[in-house]
Amino acid sequence: DIEMTQSPLSLPVIPGESASISCRSSRSLLNSEGSNSLFWYLQKPGQSPQVLIYLGNRASGVPDRFSGSGSGSDFTLKISRVEAEDVGVYYCMQSLQTPITFGQGTRLEIK
Amino acid sequence: EVQLVESGGGLVQPGGSLRLSCAASGFTFSIYFMHWVRQTPGKGLEWVSRINGDGSDTTYAEFVKGRFTISRDNAKNTLDLQMNSLKAGDTAVYYCVLLGTRPPAWGQGTLVTVSS
Asked: CB-CB: which of A55, A91, A100 is closest to B47?
């Protein structure tokens, strides 16, 4: 199984500042199409996970304050100018092979 | 617009059975793999199972093998998960998930509680 490791697990942020979440996989997520089979999700309280970044693309409707970077086994989600609405738990997920696996989640809170 | 709507969750006793369903719309259902993912309070998000477009190929997480069966009806655009021999550890919100479209989509989830 591909292990996904996120850090930090808790992320207190002052509104307007930037935040970064790291996700490392136990093997490369580079697929046969040349992209990385890596997704970033945000789960707000009481909601299902909503996709932010998938296969290197920002999902439609996601503010450009959110950006994903990295390749292979080392990825970063950056949120610039954090807003109150960004509160929730952020997950990375790999779909390169089954079982599909998730990071432990990073809880972003507003200071 | 892609929509995935789960149903069938509820309270069931240990050892019991439950059948979840997911109604899909807004995309060509029959050509995509479909997945079930669950979220437990203790273990976070866990992938459960997947099925290919025509239903001929299924894969399961080790912890549900032999107990859960995934299936689909492409005429009705529905995905099912038959869960047997349920355990307390199966208590979770179960999500129907589509990963092959751009963007991917998740349903709102259905809660399964296994308790006596």
From this structure: A100
